[in-house]
Protein backbone atom coordinates (compact mmCIF):
# COMPACT_ATOMS: atom_id res chain seq x y z
CA UNK A 1 0.00 0.00 0.00
CA UNK A 2 1.21 3.48 -0.86
CA UNK A 3 -0.37 6.11 1.37
CA UNK A 4 -0.29 9.90 1.35
CA UNK A 5 -0.29 11.64 4.73
CA UNK A 6 -1.08 15.33 4.61
CA UNK A 7 -2.39 18.23 6.68
CA UNK A 8 -6.16 18.76 6.69
CA UNK A 9 -6.07 22.22 8.32
CA UNK A 10 -3.59 25.14 8.36
CA UNK A 11 -0.46 23.06 9.04
CA UNK A 12 1.12 21.99 12.35
CA UNK A 13 -1.50 19.26 12.72
CA UNK A 14 1.02 16.84 14.19
CA UNK A 15 1.90 15.16 10.89
CA UNK A 16 5.46 14.55 12.10
CA UNK A 17 4.31 12.23 14.85
CA UNK A 18 1.81 10.38 12.66
CA UNK A 19 4.27 9.92 9.79
CA UNK A 20 6.94 8.76 12.21
CA UNK A 21 4.53 6.31 13.78
CA UNK A 22 3.41 4.80 10.47
CA UNK A 23 6.85 4.68 8.90
CA UNK A 24 7.51 1.07 9.94
CA UNK A 25 4.79 -0.02 7.51
CA UNK A 26 6.71 1.42 4.56
CA UNK A 27 9.99 1.01 2.77
CA UNK A 28 10.22 4.57 1.41
CA UNK A 29 9.08 7.96 2.74
CA UNK A 30 8.93 10.74 0.15
CA UNK A 31 8.36 14.46 0.64
CA UNK A 32 6.75 16.19 -2.30
CA UNK A 33 6.61 19.94 -1.57
CA UNK A 34 7.64 22.82 0.70
CA UNK A 35 10.99 23.81 2.07
CA UNK A 36 12.76 23.97 5.40
CA UNK A 37 9.92 25.91 6.99
CA UNK A 38 7.94 22.76 7.70
CA UNK A 39 9.19 21.99 11.22
CA UNK A 40 7.84 18.56 12.09
CA UNK A 41 8.45 17.69 15.72
CA UNK A 42 9.13 14.04 16.46
CA UNK A 43 9.95 12.46 19.81
CA UNK A 44 11.88 9.23 19.58
CA UNK A 45 13.89 7.37 22.19
CA UNK A 46 13.19 10.14 24.68
CA UNK A 47 14.73 12.78 22.40
CA UNK A 48 13.11 15.62 20.53
CA UNK A 49 13.91 16.14 16.85
CA UNK A 50 12.65 19.02 14.72
CA UNK A 51 12.81 17.99 11.07
CA UNK A 52 12.53 20.82 8.60
CA UNK A 53 13.50 19.43 5.25
CA UNK A 54 14.17 15.75 5.78
CA UNK A 55 11.20 13.39 5.70
CA UNK A 56 10.16 12.24 9.16
CA UNK A 57 11.01 8.65 8.20
CA UNK A 58 14.70 9.54 8.46
CA UNK A 59 14.82 8.46 12.10
CA UNK A 60 14.15 4.85 11.12
CA UNK A 61 16.79 2.37 10.06
CA UNK A 62 16.33 0.78 6.66
CA UNK A 63 13.95 3.44 5.31
CA UNK A 64 14.83 5.27 2.11
CA UNK A 65 13.91 8.95 2.42
CA UNK A 66 13.24 11.04 -0.65
CA UNK A 67 13.15 14.76 -1.25
CA UNK A 68 11.12 15.25 -4.42
CA UNK A 69 11.34 17.81 -7.20
CA UNK A 70 8.42 19.74 -5.67
CA UNK A 71 10.59 20.65 -2.66
CA UNK A 72 12.93 23.66 -2.64
CA UNK A 73 16.27 22.98 -0.97
CA UNK A 74 18.57 25.27 0.96
CA UNK A 75 21.76 23.17 0.97
CA UNK A 76 23.09 24.77 4.16
CA UNK A 77 19.84 24.02 5.99
CA UNK A 78 19.94 20.44 4.68
CA UNK A 79 23.51 19.90 5.82
CA UNK A 80 22.81 21.41 9.25
CA UNK A 81 19.92 19.00 9.73
CA UNK A 82 21.96 16.00 8.61
CA UNK A 83 24.84 17.02 10.91
CA UNK A 84 22.47 17.28 13.87
CA UNK A 85 21.15 13.79 13.22
CA UNK A 86 24.69 12.48 12.76
CA UNK A 87 25.59 13.83 16.18
CA UNK A 88 22.63 11.89 17.58
CA UNK A 89 23.99 8.73 15.93
CA UNK A 90 21.45 8.69 13.08
CA UNK A 91 23.20 8.25 9.72
CA UNK A 92 20.73 10.37 7.72
CA UNK A 93 23.10 10.67 4.75
CA UNK A 94 22.97 6.92 4.17
CA UNK A 95 19.18 6.90 3.75
CA UNK A 96 18.63 9.93 1.55
CA UNK A 97 17.83 10.54 -2.12
CA UNK A 98 17.19 13.95 -3.68
CA UNK A 99 15.53 14.71 -7.00
CA UNK A 100 17.78 16.23 -9.64
CA UNK A 101 14.82 18.46 -10.54
CA UNK A 102 14.40 20.03 -7.09
CA UNK A 103 15.08 23.76 -7.08
CA UNK A 104 17.72 25.37 -4.91
CA UNK A 105 17.31 28.22 -2.45
CA UNK A 106 20.26 30.55 -2.98
CA UNK A 107 21.55 33.34 -0.70
CA UNK A 108 19.74 36.04 -2.71
CA UNK A 109 16.40 34.28 -2.19
CA UNK A 110 16.67 34.74 1.55
CA UNK A 111 17.46 38.44 1.17
CA UNK A 112 14.60 38.94 -1.27
CA UNK A 113 12.18 37.22 1.10
CA UNK A 114 13.03 39.58 3.97
CA UNK A 115 12.81 42.56 1.68
CA UNK A 116 9.48 41.75 0.09
CA UNK A 117 7.84 40.94 3.45
CA UNK A 118 9.11 44.28 4.84
CA UNK A 119 7.75 46.11 1.79
CA UNK A 120 4.32 44.54 2.15
CA UNK A 121 3.95 46.36 5.49
CA UNK A 122 0.41 45.90 6.77
CA UNK A 123 -0.35 43.42 3.99
CA UNK A 124 2.37 41.00 5.01
CA UNK A 125 1.78 37.29 4.39
CA UNK A 126 3.59 36.11 7.52
CA UNK A 127 6.24 34.05 5.73
CA UNK A 128 9.17 32.48 7.57
CA UNK A 129 11.61 34.51 5.41
CA UNK A 130 13.81 31.57 4.51
CA UNK A 131 13.87 32.30 0.79
CA UNK A 132 11.31 29.62 0.00
CA UNK A 133 8.77 31.91 -1.74
CA UNK A 134 11.38 33.63 -3.95
CA UNK A 135 12.88 30.23 -4.91
CA UNK A 136 9.43 29.06 -6.07
CA UNK A 137 8.97 32.39 -7.88
CA UNK A 138 12.20 31.74 -9.80
CA UNK A 139 11.04 28.21 -10.61
CA UNK A 140 7.83 29.49 -12.18
CA UNK A 141 9.67 32.34 -13.92
CA UNK A 142 11.98 29.69 -15.41
CA UNK A 143 15.18 31.20 -14.06
CA UNK A 144 15.57 28.84 -11.10
CA UNK A 145 18.60 26.66 -10.49
CA UNK A 146 17.99 22.98 -10.02
CA UNK A 147 20.04 20.45 -8.09
CA UNK A 148 20.88 18.60 -11.32
CA UNK A 149 22.31 21.81 -12.82
CA UNK A 150 25.19 21.54 -10.37
CA UNK A 151 26.70 18.71 -12.41
CA UNK A 152 27.89 21.34 -14.86
CA UNK A 153 28.98 24.41 -12.97
CA UNK A 154 30.73 25.92 -15.97
CA UNK A 155 27.55 26.25 -17.95
CA UNK A 156 25.74 27.40 -14.81
CA UNK A 157 28.07 30.36 -14.26
CA UNK A 158 26.34 32.55 -16.80
CA UNK A 159 22.88 32.00 -15.30
CA UNK A 160 24.15 32.62 -11.77
CA UNK A 161 25.97 35.79 -12.83
CA UNK A 162 22.81 37.05 -14.48
CA UNK A 163 20.59 36.16 -11.51
CA UNK A 164 22.91 37.75 -8.95
CA UNK A 165 23.24 40.95 -11.01
CA UNK A 166 19.44 41.19 -11.32
CA UNK A 167 19.00 40.66 -7.56
CA UNK A 168 21.72 43.16 -6.68
CA UNK A 169 19.67 45.77 -8.52
CA UNK A 170 16.63 44.90 -6.40
CA UNK A 171 18.30 44.61 -2.99
CA UNK A 172 19.57 47.96 -1.65
CA UNK A 173 23.30 47.96 -0.78
CA UNK A 174 23.71 44.37 -1.94
CA UNK A 175 27.20 43.58 -3.09
CA UNK A 176 26.70 39.87 -3.54
CA UNK A 177 29.41 38.38 -5.73
CA UNK A 178 28.24 35.71 -8.16
CA UNK A 179 31.62 33.93 -7.95
CA UNK A 180 31.06 33.35 -4.24
CA UNK A 181 27.64 31.94 -5.02
CA UNK A 182 29.22 29.55 -7.55
CA UNK A 183 31.87 28.52 -4.99
CA UNK A 184 29.15 27.79 -2.46
CA UNK A 185 27.22 25.76 -5.04
CA UNK A 186 30.34 23.77 -5.85
CA UNK A 187 30.89 22.92 -2.18
CA UNK A 188 27.22 21.98 -1.91
CA UNK A 189 27.49 19.62 -4.86
CA UNK A 190 30.59 17.97 -3.40
CA UNK A 191 28.48 16.95 -0.44
CA UNK A 192 25.07 16.45 -2.07
CA UNK A 193 26.09 14.77 -5.30
CA UNK A 194 25.87 11.22 -4.00
CA UNK A 195 22.21 11.64 -3.03
CA UNK A 196 20.99 13.05 -6.33
CA UNK A 197 18.94 10.85 -8.65
CA UNK A 198 15.94 10.67 -10.98
CA UNK A 199 13.33 10.25 -8.24
CA UNK A 200 10.45 9.46 -10.60
CA UNK A 201 12.39 6.56 -12.11
CA UNK A 202 13.58 5.38 -8.71
CA UNK A 203 10.02 5.31 -7.35
CA UNK A 204 8.70 3.53 -10.42
CA UNK A 205 11.33 0.78 -10.11
CA UNK A 206 10.92 0.54 -6.36
CA UNK A 207 7.18 0.05 -6.71
CA UNK A 208 7.71 -2.59 -9.38
CA UNK A 209 9.86 -4.43 -6.83
CA UNK A 210 7.00 -4.29 -4.36
CA UNK A 211 8.43 -1.59 -2.10
CA UNK A 212 5.76 0.56 -0.43
CA UNK A 213 5.84 4.33 -0.25
CA UNK A 214 4.47 6.91 2.14
CA UNK A 215 4.01 10.33 0.56
CA UNK A 216 4.60 12.96 3.23
CA UNK A 217 3.00 16.40 2.98
CA UNK A 218 4.17 19.56 4.70
CA UNK A 219 2.00 22.51 5.81
CA UNK A 220 -1.73 21.92 5.25
CA UNK A 221 -4.65 22.05 2.84
CA UNK A 222 -5.74 25.59 3.75
CA UNK A 223 -2.19 26.80 3.09
CA UNK A 224 -2.06 25.28 -0.41
CA UNK A 225 -1.09 27.80 -3.10
CA UNK A 226 -4.21 26.97 -5.16
CA UNK A 227 -6.75 25.61 -2.70
CA UNK A 228 -5.75 27.51 0.44
CA UNK A 229 -6.78 30.91 1.77
CA UNK A 230 -4.91 32.78 -0.96
CA UNK A 231 -2.89 35.03 -0.70
CA UNK A 232 -2.17 33.94 2.88
CA UNK A 233 -0.71 30.63 1.76
CA UNK A 234 2.53 28.82 1.19
CA UNK A 235 4.17 28.71 -2.25
CA UNK A 236 3.52 25.06 -3.12
CA UNK A 237 0.77 22.46 -3.45
CA UNK A 238 0.36 20.87 -0.05
CA UNK A 239 -2.76 19.08 -1.29
CA UNK A 240 -2.86 15.69 -2.96
CA UNK A 241 -2.03 16.83 -6.49
CA UNK A 242 1.39 17.86 -5.18
CA UNK A 243 2.25 14.17 -4.73
CA UNK A 244 2.07 13.55 -8.48
CA UNK A 245 3.74 16.76 -9.63
CA UNK A 246 6.25 16.87 -6.80
CA UNK A 247 7.59 13.34 -7.25
CA UNK A 248 6.76 12.31 -10.79
CA UNK A 249 4.26 9.56 -9.95
CA UNK A 250 0.83 8.90 -11.42
CA UNK A 251 -2.39 9.17 -9.38
CA UNK A 252 -2.82 5.38 -9.28
CA UNK A 253 0.38 5.16 -7.28
CA UNK A 254 -1.62 6.51 -4.33
CA UNK A 255 -3.73 3.80 -2.70
CA UNK A 256 -5.07 5.84 0.19
CA UNK A 257 -5.07 9.35 1.64
CA UNK A 258 -4.85 10.07 5.36
CA UNK A 259 -5.59 13.61 6.52
CA UNK A 260 -4.12 14.77 9.82
CA UNK A 261 -6.28 17.19 11.81
CA UNK A 262 -6.07 18.52 15.34
CA UNK A 263 -9.07 18.18 17.63
CA UNK A 264 -9.16 22.00 17.48
CA UNK A 265 -7.73 24.52 14.99
CA UNK A 266 -4.53 26.55 14.79
CA UNK A 267 -2.90 28.84 12.31
CA UNK A 268 0.44 30.66 12.14
CA UNK A 269 0.76 34.06 10.49
CA UNK A 270 -1.85 36.18 8.80
CA UNK A 271 -5.08 35.32 7.01
CA UNK A 272 -8.62 34.27 7.87
CA UNK A 273 -9.29 31.81 10.71
CA UNK A 274 -13.06 31.74 11.31
CA UNK A 275 -13.02 29.88 14.66
CA UNK A 276 -10.18 31.93 16.18
CA UNK A 277 -10.43 32.51 19.94
CA UNK A 278 -8.63 35.69 20.92
CA UNK A 279 -9.44 35.78 24.63
CA UNK A 280 -8.77 33.52 27.57
CA UNK A 281 -9.88 30.32 25.81
CA UNK A 282 -7.42 30.99 22.98
CA UNK A 283 -4.61 31.32 25.55
CA UNK A 284 -5.76 28.16 27.29
CA UNK A 285 -5.52 26.14 24.05
CA UNK A 286 -2.17 27.73 23.15
CA UNK A 287 -0.63 26.96 26.53
CA UNK A 288 -1.91 23.42 26.96
CA UNK A 289 -1.32 22.57 23.29
CA UNK A 290 2.11 24.23 23.33
CA UNK A 291 1.08 26.05 20.18
CA UNK A 292 4.31 27.81 19.34
CA UNK A 293 6.04 27.33 15.97
CA UNK A 294 8.49 24.40 15.96
CA UNK A 295 10.98 26.41 13.89
CA UNK A 296 10.09 30.05 14.48
CA UNK A 297 8.72 29.91 18.05
CA UNK A 298 5.86 32.15 16.88
CA UNK A 299 2.65 31.80 18.95
CA UNK A 300 -0.04 30.10 16.89
CA UNK A 301 -3.56 31.46 16.67
CA UNK A 302 -5.97 28.95 18.22
CA UNK A 303 -9.67 28.20 17.84
CA UNK A 304 -12.36 25.55 18.01
CA UNK A 305 -12.50 22.62 15.58
CA UNK A 306 -13.67 23.89 12.21
CA UNK A 307 -15.53 21.02 10.54
CA UNK A 308 -16.23 23.15 7.45
CA UNK A 309 -12.50 23.56 6.84
CA UNK A 310 -11.75 19.86 7.39
CA UNK A 311 -14.69 18.82 5.22
CA UNK A 312 -13.19 21.03 2.53
CA UNK A 313 -9.88 19.16 2.98
CA UNK A 314 -11.77 15.87 2.59
CA UNK A 315 -13.14 17.09 -0.74
CA UNK A 316 -9.98 18.69 -2.16
CA UNK A 317 -7.74 15.73 -1.26
CA UNK A 318 -10.20 12.86 -1.47
CA UNK A 319 -9.32 11.95 2.12
CA UNK A 320 -10.25 8.40 3.06
CA UNK A 321 -9.83 8.90 6.76
CA UNK A 322 -8.43 11.17 9.48
CA UNK A 323 -5.82 11.03 12.18
CA UNK A 324 -7.22 13.23 14.94
CA UNK A 325 -4.40 14.62 17.07
CA UNK A 326 -4.05 16.46 20.36
CA UNK A 327 -7.35 15.29 21.79
CA UNK A 328 -5.72 15.52 25.24
CA UNK A 329 -5.37 19.30 24.89
CA UNK A 330 -9.14 19.55 25.33
CA UNK A 331 -8.98 17.66 28.66
CA UNK A 332 -10.80 19.42 31.47
CA UNK A 333 -12.79 21.90 29.40
CA UNK A 334 -16.41 21.95 30.61
CA UNK A 335 -17.79 22.25 27.08
CA UNK A 336 -16.53 22.35 23.53
CA UNK A 337 -17.67 24.06 20.38
CA UNK A 338 -17.53 22.63 16.88
CA UNK A 339 -18.04 24.84 13.85
CA UNK A 340 -20.58 23.20 11.55
CA UNK A 341 -21.17 26.05 9.06
CA UNK A 342 -20.35 29.74 8.53
CA UNK A 343 -22.66 32.72 8.65
CA UNK A 344 -21.59 35.03 5.85
CA UNK A 345 -23.43 38.36 5.59
CA UNK A 346 -26.48 36.90 7.31
CA UNK A 347 -26.64 33.71 5.23
CA UNK A 348 -25.69 30.31 6.62
CA UNK A 349 -23.10 28.73 4.33
CA UNK A 350 -22.42 25.01 4.91
CA UNK A 351 -19.28 24.81 2.73
CA UNK A 352 -16.03 26.75 2.44
CA UNK A 353 -16.79 29.86 0.35
CA UNK A 354 -14.95 29.96 -2.97
CA UNK A 355 -14.01 33.56 -2.34
CA UNK A 356 -11.61 33.48 0.57
CA UNK A 357 -11.71 37.25 0.96
CA UNK A 358 -15.30 36.69 2.10
CA UNK A 359 -14.11 34.24 4.74
CA UNK A 360 -12.67 36.94 7.00
CA UNK A 361 -16.14 38.42 7.40
CA UNK A 362 -17.80 35.03 8.06
CA UNK A 363 -18.71 33.93 11.55
CA UNK A 364 -18.75 30.34 12.73
CA UNK A 365 -22.02 28.58 13.48
CA UNK A 366 -21.30 26.46 16.54
CA UNK A 367 -22.67 23.30 18.03
CA UNK A 368 -21.91 22.85 21.72
CA UNK A 369 -20.77 19.47 23.01
CA UNK A 370 -19.99 18.40 26.58
CA UNK A 371 -16.34 18.24 27.64
CA UNK A 372 -14.78 15.49 29.77
CA UNK A 373 -13.26 15.57 33.24
CA UNK A 374 -11.35 12.27 33.22
CA UNK A 375 -8.20 12.90 31.11
CA UNK A 376 -7.79 11.55 27.58
CA UNK A 377 -4.06 12.26 27.90
CA UNK A 378 -2.00 9.14 27.38
CA UNK A 379 -5.01 6.86 26.73
CA UNK A 380 -3.96 4.07 24.35
CA UNK A 381 -7.20 2.15 23.82
CA UNK A 382 -10.27 3.70 22.26
CA UNK A 383 -12.58 2.05 24.77
CA UNK A 384 -10.66 3.69 27.61
CA UNK A 385 -11.40 7.22 26.40
CA UNK A 386 -13.98 9.20 28.41
CA UNK A 387 -17.47 8.74 26.97
CA UNK A 388 -17.76 12.45 26.13
CA UNK A 389 -14.48 12.26 24.17
CA UNK A 390 -15.83 9.31 22.18
CA UNK A 391 -19.02 11.29 21.51
CA UNK A 392 -16.94 14.32 20.42
CA UNK A 393 -15.01 12.15 17.94
CA UNK A 394 -18.21 10.55 16.65
CA UNK A 395 -19.79 13.96 16.02
CA UNK A 396 -16.63 15.24 14.30
CA UNK A 397 -16.63 12.19 12.05
CA UNK A 398 -20.27 12.76 11.21
CA UNK A 399 -19.95 16.41 10.19
CA UNK A 400 -16.53 16.06 8.61
CA UNK A 401 -17.71 13.14 6.53
CA UNK A 402 -14.87 10.65 7.11
CA UNK A 403 -13.99 8.31 9.98
CA UNK A 404 -11.08 8.97 12.32
CA UNK A 405 -8.86 5.88 12.13
CA UNK A 406 -6.19 7.25 14.44
CA UNK A 407 -6.58 9.25 17.64
CA UNK A 408 -3.55 10.84 19.26
CA UNK A 409 -3.60 11.54 22.99
CA UNK A 410 -0.10 12.82 23.68
CA UNK A 411 3.17 13.72 22.00
CA UNK A 412 4.81 10.30 22.59
CA UNK A 413 4.71 7.69 19.83
CA UNK A 414 2.93 5.33 22.20
CA UNK A 415 0.14 7.79 23.03
CA UNK A 416 -1.75 6.83 19.91
CA UNK A 417 -4.83 4.77 19.15
CA UNK A 418 -5.11 2.95 15.83
CA UNK A 419 -8.77 1.98 15.90
CA UNK A 420 -9.56 -1.65 15.26
CA UNK A 421 -11.37 -2.27 12.00
CA UNK A 422 -10.73 1.32 10.83
CA UNK A 423 -9.69 2.29 7.29
CA UNK A 424 -6.07 2.81 8.35
CA UNK A 425 -6.00 -0.44 10.36
CA UNK A 426 -7.03 -2.24 7.16
CA UNK A 427 -4.23 -0.54 5.21
CA UNK A 428 -1.63 -1.66 7.67
CA UNK A 429 -2.96 -5.16 8.36
CA UNK A 430 -0.78 -6.65 5.67
P1 LIG B 1 3.49 19.05 12.14
O1 LIG B 1 4.23 20.13 11.44
O2 LIG B 1 2.16 18.79 11.51
O3 LIG B 1 4.29 17.80 12.33
O4 LIG B 1 3.14 19.58 13.58
P2 LIG B 1 4.14 20.19 14.68
O5 LIG B 1 5.31 19.30 14.83
O6 LIG B 1 4.39 21.62 14.45
O7 LIG B 1 3.21 20.14 15.94
C1 LIG B 1 2.93 19.04 16.54
C2 LIG B 1 3.33 19.18 18.00
O8 LIG B 1 2.34 18.59 18.75
C3 LIG B 1 4.60 18.46 18.32
O9 LIG B 1 5.26 19.09 19.38
C4 LIG B 1 4.11 17.09 18.73
O10 LIG B 1 4.97 16.40 19.59
C5 LIG B 1 2.86 17.47 19.43
N1 LIG B 1 1.81 16.46 19.36
C6 LIG B 1 1.48 15.64 18.32
N2 LIG B 1 0.42 14.88 18.64
C7 LIG B 1 0.06 15.26 19.90
C8 LIG B 1 -0.99 14.87 20.78
O11 LIG B 1 -1.82 14.04 20.47
N3 LIG B 1 -1.04 15.51 21.98
C9 LIG B 1 -0.16 16.46 22.36
N4 LIG B 1 -0.30 17.03 23.55
N5 LIG B 1 0.84 16.84 21.56
C10 LIG B 1 0.95 16.26 20.36
Notes on the protein architecture:
The chain is of the alpha/beta class. It folds into 3 domains: 3-102 and 196-253, Adenylosuccinate Synthetase, Chain A, domain 1, CATH 3.40.440.10; 104-192, Orthogonal Bundle (Adenylosuccinate Synthetase, subunit A, domain 2); 261-420, Adenylosuccinate Synthetase, subunit A, domain 3 (Adenylosuccinate Synthetase, Chain A, domain 3, Alpha-Beta Complex). Helix content is 32%, strand content 20%. The protein contains 13 helices and 20 strands. The protein has helices at residues 15-22, 75-87, 107-120, 132-140, 153-170, 178-192, 199-208, 241-247, 280-288, 307-317, 356-359, 387-400, 423-427; strands spanning 3-7, 28-31, 40-44, 47-51, 64-67, 72-73, 96-99, 103-104, 196-197, 213-216, 256-262, 265-267, 301-303, 305-306, 321-325, 335-344, 347-349, 363-370, 404-408, 416-418. Strands 9-7-5-2-10-1-11-15-19-20 form a 10-stranded mixed sheet, sandwiched between helices. Strands 14, 16, 17 and 18 form a 4-stranded mixed sheet that branches. A two-stranded antiparallel ribbon has the order 3-4. Helix 3 (107-120) packs across helix 4 (132-140). The radius of gyration is 22 Å and the shape is globular. The chain starts with a strand and ends with a helix. Bound molecules: guanosine-5'-diphosphate. Guanosine-5'-diphosphate is lined by residues 7, 12-17, 39-41, 43, 294, 325-326, 328-329, 408-411.
Brief overview:
The protein is of the alpha/beta class and 430 residues long. Helix content is 32%, strand content 20%.
Q: What is this structure's SSE topology?
A:
Elements (H helix, E strand, L loop, with lengths): L2 E5 L7 H8 L5 E4 L8 E5 L2 E5 L12 E4 L4 E2 L1 H13 L8 E4 L3 E2 L2 H14 L11 H9 L12 H18 L7 H15 L3 E2 L1 H10 L4 E4 L24 H7 L8 E7 L2 E3 L12 H9 L12 E3 L1 E2 H11 L3 E5 L9 E10 L2 E3 L6 H4 L3 E8 L16 H14 L3 E5 L7 E3 L4 H5 L3
Parallel strand pairs: 1-10, 1-11, 2-5, 2-10, 5-7, 6-8, 7-9, 11-15, 14-16, 15-19
Antiparallel strand pairs: 3-4, 12-13, 16-17, 16-18, 19-20
The chain binds guanosine-5'-diphosphate (GDP).
Guanosine-5'-diphosphate binds next to helix 1 and strand 3.
Amino acid sequence: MNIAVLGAQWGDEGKGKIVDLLTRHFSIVARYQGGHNAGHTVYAGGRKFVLRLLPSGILHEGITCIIGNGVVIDPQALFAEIDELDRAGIPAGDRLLISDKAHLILPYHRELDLLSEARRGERKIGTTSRGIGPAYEDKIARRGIRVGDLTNLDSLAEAVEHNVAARNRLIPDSTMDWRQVIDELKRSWDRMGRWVTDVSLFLSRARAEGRSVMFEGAQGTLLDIDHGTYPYVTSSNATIGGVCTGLGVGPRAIDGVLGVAKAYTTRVGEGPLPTELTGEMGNRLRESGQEFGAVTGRPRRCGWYDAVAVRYAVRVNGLDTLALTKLDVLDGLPELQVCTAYRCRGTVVPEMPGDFAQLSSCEPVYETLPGWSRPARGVRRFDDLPDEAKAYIARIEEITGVPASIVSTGSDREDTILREGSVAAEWFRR
